[in-house]
């Protein structure tokens, strides 16, 4: 397609507006842990990136290898993680605007919906590769039988973007394989000589390799939690609410992730009147999800494309029952857009039927554009993460000359069912009549991982060296290994920190009693020095957080570095 044709004027303007908005908003975005963790990993050896890190990260190594091209030339981390992310998203949106078969108005509006304009463009993650690979595969889908290798190469790129990309790519290939064997002139012997068989074989070996290097180790943090998970709630969410969240609903955010640790029966019991909003929105989402699934089924049955939509779709939802985060929701949005793209290329029927769907499409796009506007304005207004401002404060006040301790992951005291070992959010949610039953059936558990120091990873990116006494990763790596330490390993780590003395500066709420004895701590008093606010942004929601810097009072009194009014 010649993009310089006169009838593409609006498309060209739309594309440049999208690019300008993303670049502008990205300047305000403070990268958070997942973004800087990937940058730190990119500084490691190729061997570790390929064969060690994927077992702990759960991602194929492509994103880290791409970032390595930038981290190896000593570019500033914030710039280094943005360049490839923006290029992939710009390419994806270019394909969407100029190559997709959608109505012109839809092509012009989709780029400004939440997941395109903000979540996968401003927040720098490998999901930008996912978006580009999905749309590239859609471009090649129509001529997949004539040019199978270019179609498969797009799907291989999809596999290498993230684990969800692998799931979807495998589903699409399974459907394609069944389409091939159902052909009237299909012969098994000739198929083995067919280019399509060779291309399918190629992606099979790529997926096999990626699976081998990504299989979680026993001590991988994401799968080695000591608290058992109940999957009934996650099943209900994934198969009913998730499709709604991807299109127009807003149930799951980072604060509600803990709900998935609850047993379904406990979930129903503990939500009294004070929590009625969460409970009602959950069941409302399930009801809306039934409607959405029925509508999707009717559409693709009418088009005789049930396999194309539902095989990858159900594989995606099944995988999300095991592993889901809010940032994965938009991947289903991209998938739905891509499948409609493929279907519109293969069928003229839907183009006539689209008039019936325009109202629903208009509602979804309007809501998503609203989310995008909210997210952009909130990104400009608030700090997304506190690492940049904390690092600047440390530099301005020369705090890096002191012994600084960073906080580690501390989930507080939670309550675990003695029989099922499933997490309970807390006795504060119980009525007085339920308390006796609670005492007999639940035990306290402290959730604490000394090696999970996300703030240290982020703040260190703004310095030429490690400034934290307790950032003791193996071989001084600039990232943390997402590994669940044993009690012995945790104690050994604590001993290393004790040998370096008591911290003079502490960042975040730190359980110093875990490391130092009461007699040692009795000699010191810590006073708050500075508060840093940051905000988790999700769609139109803003969840505020505070990160506080503490200083030992004897250091404060001795050096008089700070105005007491501060």
Can you offer a commentary on this structure?
The chain has a domain of 132 residues. It is 58% helix and 9% strand. It contains 25 helices and seven strands. Strands 1-5-7-6 form a four-stranded mixed beta sheet. Strands 3-2-4 form a three-stranded antiparallel beta sheet.
Can you give the helix content as a percent range? 55-70%
Question: Unreliable runs, pLDDT <50, ≥5 residues?
Answer: none
Q: What is the first-to-last residue Cα distance?
A: 60 Å
Please report the number of helical segments: 25
Largest sheet: 4 strands, mixed
Number of strands: 7
The average pLDDT is 89
Sum up the structure in keywords.
alpha+beta, 25 helices, 566 residues, three-stranded antiparallel sheet
Question: What's this, in brief?
Answer:
The chain has 566 residues and is α+β, with helices and mostly antiparallel strands.
Which helices and strands occur, and which strands form pairs?
Elements: H1 9-28, H2 33-42, H3 46-51, H4 53-57, H5 62-71, H6 77-99, H7 104-109, H8 114-119, H9 127-141, H10 148-159, H11 163-181, H12 188-193, H13 195-214, H14 232-247, H15 264-270, H16 276-302, H17 306-322, H18 329-346, H19 349-381, H20 387-396, E1 404-406, E2 409-417, E3 423-424, H21 432-441, E4 442-449, H22 454-460, H23 487-499, E5 505-507, H24 518-521, E6 526-538, E7 541-552, H25 553-559
Parallel strand pairs: 1-5
Antiparallel strand pairs: 2-3, 2-4, 5-7, 6-7
């Amino acid at each position: 397609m010649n993009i310089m044709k006169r009838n593409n004027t609006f498309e060209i303007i739309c594309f440049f507006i999208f690019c300008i908005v993303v670049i502008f908003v990205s300047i305000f975005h403070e990268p958070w842990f997942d973004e800087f963790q990937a940058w730190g990993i990119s500084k490691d050896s190729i061997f570790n990136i390929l064969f060690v890190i994927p077992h702990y990260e759960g991602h194929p190594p492509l994103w880290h290898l791409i970032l390595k091209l930038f981290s190896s030339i000593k570019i500033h981390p914030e710039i280094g993680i943005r360049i490839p992310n923006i290029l992939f998203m710009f390419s994806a949106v270019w394909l969407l605007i100029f190559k997709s078969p959608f109505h012109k108005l839809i092509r012009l509006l989709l780029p400004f919906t939440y997941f395109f304009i903000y979540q996968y463009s401003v927040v720098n993650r490998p999901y930008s590769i996912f978006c580009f690979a999905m749309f590239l595969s859609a471009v090649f889908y129509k001529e997949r039988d004539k040019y199978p290798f270019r179609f498969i190469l797009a799907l291989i790129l999809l596999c290498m973007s993230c684990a969800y990309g692998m799931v979807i790519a495998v589903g699409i290939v399974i459907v394609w394989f069944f389409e091939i064997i159902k052909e009237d002139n299909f012969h098994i012997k000739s198929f083995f000589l067919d280019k399509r068989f060779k291309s399918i074989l190629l992606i099979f070996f790529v997926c096999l390799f990626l699976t081998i290097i990504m299989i979680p180790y026993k001590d991988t943090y994401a799968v080695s939690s000591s608290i058992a998970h109940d999957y009934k709630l996650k099943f209900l969410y994934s198969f009913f609410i998730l499709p709604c969240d991807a299109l127009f609903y807003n149930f799951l955010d980072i604060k509600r992730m803990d709900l998935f640790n609850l047993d379904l029966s406990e979930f129903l019991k503990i939500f009294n009147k004070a929590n009625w909003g969460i409970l009602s929105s959950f069941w409302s989402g399930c009801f809306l999800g039934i409607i959405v699934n029925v509508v999707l089924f009717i559409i693709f049955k009418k088009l005789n494309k049930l396999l194309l939509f539902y095989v990858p779709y159900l594989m995606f939802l099944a995988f999300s029952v095991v592993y889901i985060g809010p940032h994965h929701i938009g991947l289903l949005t991209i998938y739905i857009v891509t499948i409609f793209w493929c279907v519109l290329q293969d069928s003229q029927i839907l183009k006539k039927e689209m008039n019936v769907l325009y109202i629903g499409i208009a509602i979804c796009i309007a809501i998503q554009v609203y989310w995008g506007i909210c997210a952009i304005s909130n990104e400009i207004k608030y700090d997304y993460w506190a690492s940049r401002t904390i690092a600047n404060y440390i530099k301005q006040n020369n705090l890096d000359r002191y012994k600084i301790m960073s906080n580690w992951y501390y989930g507080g005291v939670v309550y675990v069912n003695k029989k099922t070992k499933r997490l309970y959010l807390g006795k504060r949610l119980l009525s007085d009549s339920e308390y006796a039953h609670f005492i007999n059936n639940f035990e306290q558990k402290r959730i604490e991982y000394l090696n999970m120091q996300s703030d240290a990873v982020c703040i260190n990116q703004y310095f030429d060296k490690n400034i934290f006494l307790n950032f003791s990763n193996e071989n001084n790596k600039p990232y943390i290994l997402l590994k669940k330490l044993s009690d012995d390993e945790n104690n050994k780590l604590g001993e290393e920190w004790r040998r370096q003395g008591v911290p003079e500066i502490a960042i975040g709420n730190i359980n110093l009693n875990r490391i130092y004895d009461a007699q040692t701590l009795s000699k010191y008093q810590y006073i708050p020095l500075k508060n840093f606010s940051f905000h988790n942004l999700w769609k139109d929601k803003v969840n505020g957080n505070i990160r506080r810097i503490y200083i030992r009072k004897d250091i404060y009194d001795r050096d008089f570095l700070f105005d007491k009014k501060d």
